[in-house]
């Protein structure tokens, strides 16, 4: 008797592009890593899939306000990647700002 039982290899149907990932690691869109933050998207870096995260904001691309740059002092976040010291600095600065904002929201009078 031959049975056509197959192991459930595709049980979850989860592919890399279905999991949140940094834009630089996107399996769908090639990333061009530049050492320094620049004002405009480099070589198609602005392309993102629904699960791409902004490395600088640590948030989904849809929540990043500087993805394509456009502001004088904000580099385009779509170029951000962990391999650049300057971007890692940007990321920790953004994190500190978020912490401060969250604290202010919880404790607007600064009593706590
Ligand atoms: Zn992606
Ligand atoms: Zn961002």
Automatic annotation (TrEMBL):
<protein>
    <recommendedName>
        <fullName>IBR domain-containing protein</fullName>
    </recommendedName>
</protein>
<feature type="compositionally biased region" description="Basic residues">
    <location>
        <begin position="93"/>
        <end position="103"/>
    </location>
</feature>
<feature type="region of interest" description="Disordered">
    <location>
        <begin position="82"/>
        <end position="112"/>
    </location>
</feature>
<dbReference type="InterPro" id="IPR053234">
    <property type="entry name" value="RPM1_Interactor"/>
</dbReference>
